[in-house]
Design brief:
It is built from 17 helices and 32 strands. It is α+β, with helices and mostly antiparallel strands and 740 residues long. The strands form 8 sheets. Strands 6-21-20-19-22-10-15-12 form an 8-stranded mixed sheet, with helices on both faces. The protein has a 5-stranded mixed sheet with strand order 1-2-3-4-5. The termini are far apart.
Amino acid sequence: MKRRQFLKLSVLSSGALFIGIHVPQSLAEESDESTSGTMDLYPYIHINPDNSLHVHSYKQEMGQGVLNALAMIICEELDADWSTVSVFHQNFSRQIENMHEEFGRLNSGGSTSIPSEWPILRKAGASIKQVLLIAAAKRFGCDIADCICRNSAVHQKSTNKSLLFAQLIGDAANVTLPAHVIDNMPYKSRINYSLVGKSTPTNNVNQIVRGELVYGIDMEVDNMLYASILRPPTLGASVDVFDASQAMKIEGVIDVYALDTEIKSGLFDTGILGGIVVVGTSTWACLRAIKRLSVSWKQGYAEDASSSKLAETLRTLHNKNDHIRVRSLNYEPNHIASSQNTIHAAYHSPLLPHALMEPLNAVVDYKQGAIEVWAGTQSPQHTATNLAAHFGVAKEQIKIHVLHMGGGFGRRYYADFIIEAATISEKIGMPIKLQWTREDEIHYDRFHPMRSDEMHAQLDENGNIEQYSCSAVSTQQWGGGEITFPYDHKALSIESHFHRPHFVQTGPWRAVVAHLDVFSRECFIDELAEKCDVNPLDYRFQLLQGLTKNQYKGDRAERMKNVMFLQRMFIRVLQEIKVFSNWQNNPKDQGMGIALSAFHDKSFCAQVAVVKKDNDQIVVTDVYTVADCGLVINPNSVKAQIEGSIAWGLTPVLHGGVTFEQGKCQQSNFHNLSLLSMQQMPNIHTKLVDVEMREPCGVGEIAVPTVAPAVLNAVFSLTGKRYRDLTALAGERDRVQVTG
């Protein structure tokens, strides 16, 4: 086959039309590799004999609505009846991965799912429609121009005859679209959209409401046993001796044994902590048995560690040259040190937990050199890679059933909990369901990194930035300066230092590192505005009026070649938020704070937080958000994402993060790790704009980075007190509340 087919059509034994979608790295790439005898077409669609449509997707659902949105893209171009559509996760295997070797294609994270799949699924929907039109025209005996698709049927315009998609299954299976037709596929105009851009409930909302949707925590397979692990008290500790005699007396307990510790530092592979494994006939039996274990631990390398010592260490590393990346443009540190018009500020962000609503869990069956997994994972691709490396098995022997997740936020990119379950299954010789507790999930998280930022700026007589520097010291490899610095300047220096702590493992959080970059940057810009005695929103306008072509861009500079585009977009969302939040009419009894950010230099967000005083308490009353993320597939889901992002961003600001003493996390459950509740949410006001009619750009994390600086800037506006610790307000919990 000289060219891989974009669509593969066949009739299944059930009578359904199978439509496989081949996804090359380029939609028009040429290949001499034959697909004969393989199932490398992905995702795939079934048109069933009852005229229903099943869409199988390789993106993972964790409450963000991605399965729904991806199916909407296909169905819009196909003109399918949405009420007949069901969407499913596609199981992961090496056969599928062979088509997607590029990083992240089969994973969900970084707000990339919709932008990456938009062109492919749009083409798929239009191509399937073209196949059905050709098949129907042949049946009608007319020209294809006389046919139109509507509500999962093809209608002949001149006669009003119609054929359901299901009635065309046999005919469509014999249609082959020429390459030039696929490459020049006509798409619907936005003005004709009937589904995309409309708020559409998820098609499994009834299952969710009734508690019928299967999450990882619900999963069971035949002959399955259960397991729980008593993990070491600190990172690096291991089992010395243990006594399981009392634990074995618990009814249902089958085995108790030690699991070796294996700490790693790979990308999304941090090893397993080890501990004491309890295997039984129920999770409850295992958890009861754990409480009866007597264990002596070998000392690790974290017993003297604390988060306060770590914070002090980070503050001492700003002038060191170890593990540093520097990006500089015309920067002269001696000039900034001698200038009279120089501003300096230091900011701190502590360790933050994921606190998933559904604690980690996995079902694994490891037998005869093959591994089968049932789990909620954001990254089946990385999971398969790590399983293959850990157990020395070929990826072809690994199959992963992806389940719905009760939250991911970057934590479920890691495979440690799945490797643990596979290790136990290998030893026991049975399918194992491993369930983490809430305490496990908090104590042994891959925490959002701690970071220390030192900012310096030298201003001219008009308040414009002559020189600007940021030194970021982080406990994560993706330390700082990863996002575009948007404001005009003549000289810039960004230093990113990495310090790996020995007592805690860190990883991505919702918004990855953009959250930390924006926190210090947007708070510091407010301080510059104060120095110049200029309204903070107007000062941002001033700094966005003259972006130069030499302006600094992050590691992924190719994403942002046209700096004028960046300028236009920031100015537009600022203009919108100024009106939307009624910024100019700020009463004296309230404070308003502004912050803005761009995610991947494509999705833009301007946010205003409003705070008031109620007696002696500071109250966060309202949060206004203007977001431009290009074409919105499902406005209801996008607004829900922004609301969730605001709750996510507010939680550490008002309730704090986690602390460590003697190598141990001091928080364990929601009694001492508070989360924002629905009753505590401020009033949320969201406006979605698409000022330049762009393609979808991603929205899952766009509103997280702006929350902390907007709130802290608002508190300064009200009280005159400046906070430079992201969770400083949490230290005054008796003075801080939120209201809805």
